[in-house]
Design goal:
This protein has 76 residues and is of the alpha+beta class. The chain has helices at residues 40-46, 51-58, and strands spanning 26-29, 32-34, 72-74. The protein starts with 25 loop residues before the first strand and ends with a strand.
Length: 76
């Protein structure tokens, strides 16, 4: 989905490694880095969850996407 210029959603996250803050550059996979809108502790709460569940946990004022296409850089 990321290669098709789509956003990274909580439902697409399989695991989280390390501790980071929202807005820091993090490695997504072997091919991409991103600037997430959520920190690692928040992501642990919503990993694999549907967008409606993310909204229920954090409220409608937080954005649904973990990283939008403009927040993602491909290394290859």
């Amino acid at each position: 989905a990321l290669r098709r210029h789509k956003s990274l959603l909580a439902s697409g996250i399989l695991r989280i490694e390390g501790v980071f803050e929202a807005g820091e550059v993090v490695q997504i996979n072997d091919e991409a880095k991103a600037v997430p809108a959520y920190n690692s502790r928040e992501l642990e709460q919503i990993i694999g969850k549907h967008t409606s569940e993310v909204n229920r946990i954090f409220g409608d004022e937080r954005r649904e996407e973990i990283a939008r296409p403009e927040d993602i850089v491909f290394l290859q």
